[in-house]
Design goal:
Blueprint lengths: L1 H32 L1 H22 L7 H11 L2 H15 L2 H12 L1 H27 L1 H18 L2
Amino acid sequence: MIRISLFLVIFVAAVDSHADADLRQEAEKLLSKMDVNIRVALQQSSNQMLEMQMNQSPSLAPYKDVMTKFFERYMSYESLKPEMVRMYTEAYTLGELKEINAFYSSKVGKKTLELMPRLVARSGQIAAAKVEDNLDELRTMIKAETLRLQKLSQ
């Protein structure tokens, strides 16, 4: 009886390990389909962080090259890929990843991968323009809140 139980434990562990490998492989397949988009997004994010740091702390300007190298090291696709694979394997089942990969292999899926960065960038531009168009409203809201807070503190 103990031998059968031990065999079942080893068998289940082996099957589970194979399933995990299949899941990781499917997640890596998905990431490879999105490779260019991910690299562009990470580069843009890294550039934005660096610009934000430079704007907030101009005294960092002499260190821009050092910071760029740092961000390239820790925000690169290669650096983040293992965690991204883990993220996708935790979020999706093997079957779901296969379906997603099948979609991105289709004509519409390929078009989606091609257009998505531009659509996301355009969405950001639309949102920024909408905020800019309504800054007067924000200023009015801030003034009203300032007055309210001042009254509370009296």
